[in-house]
Amino acid sequence: MAKERKSDLIRSIKNKGKNVEAEMSFFDHLSALRIHLVRSSIVIVLMTIVCFVYYDFLFDTIIMGPHKPTFWTYRMMCRIGEYFHMGPGFCITNIPGKIINTEMAGQFTLQINSALMTGLALGFPYLIWEIWRFVKPALKDSEKKSATGFVFYASLLFLIGLLFGYFIVAPLSVNFLSNYSISPDIENTITIDSYFSSVATLTLCTGAVFELPIVIFILSKLGIMTPAFMKDKRRYAVIIILVIAAVVTPTPDIPTMLTVSFPLFVLYEVSILVSSKVQKNKLKAEKEFFKN
């Protein structure tokens, strides 16, 4: 009886030691993650300071760009309309609506918020790199090899999404909403906060949506997503993509929705290919494992 009690005591001490070791390991991981997040925050803050210092260029050229008739997108539309003889309606030469500030600290708050959001967008690749550095040691060699280029592709897709959102989605939405009127007696007078939030949301949301192949890659690695499932649910994906396009572009006109939804359809098909490649590599690894 005494021996049984002694063995139970020893077993409980060992289990307690394992629990303490697991807890220490958990807190060590939290500490390591905190270091990576702190470094990312420092880079984002530095980017924000640079944007704050050079705010004249940021505001006049970048933020207010979609509200100017000389914006690149509008000039290209005029050239395309002239080349294909699409009529003067396709060429945008005027963006109506006066932009005003209605708050005492509105312009100062705008400078802070816009510099911060731009700094976050510029620091996103470094944030992804730090997260990758945190996750990488826990991966197997085969997983590290298959995930090669993760930071590059994630940053590239985000950049393409930003450019698409800024040069396509944002100007089309700004033009439509600025020209939309239910009565000639109502004049569009837009607050600067409303204008900036619209442009920033459209641009950043489009950049996030373009990360779809990366998300599918991770879900496929975890076994949550499969190419067969994505192919089977393609018709539902079409509806979801159209809904996302309707949300991202607050304009009810069909051309704008199709312009936004087309790259999303392409991204979905690319995601199916990514998921197929992941599944193929899994099956190959399983065959090699059972052979050995």
From TrEMBL:
The keyword Transmembrane helix belongs to this UniProt entry's keyword annotation: yes
Keyword check for Cell membrane: yes
Membrane association type: Multi-pass membrane protein
Origin superkingdom: Bacteria
Localisation per UniProt entry: Cell membrane; Membrane
Segments forming a coiled coil: none
Keyword annotations: Cell membrane, Membrane, Protein transport, Translocation, Transmembrane, Transmembrane helix, Transport
TM region positions: 37-55, 108-129, 150-174, 194-224, 236-252
NCBIfam families tied to this protein: tatC (TIGR00945)
Record note on quaternary structure: Forms a complex with TatA.
Assigned protein family: Belongs to the TatC family.
General function of this protein: Part of the twin-arginine translocation (Tat) system that transports large folded proteins containing a characteristic twin-arginine motif in their signal peptide across membranes.
Protein name: Sec-independent protein translocase protein TatC
Organism: Pedobacter segetis
Lineage of origin: Bacteria, Pseudomonadati, Bacteroidota, Sphingobacteriia, Sphingobacteriales
Gene it is expressed from: tatC
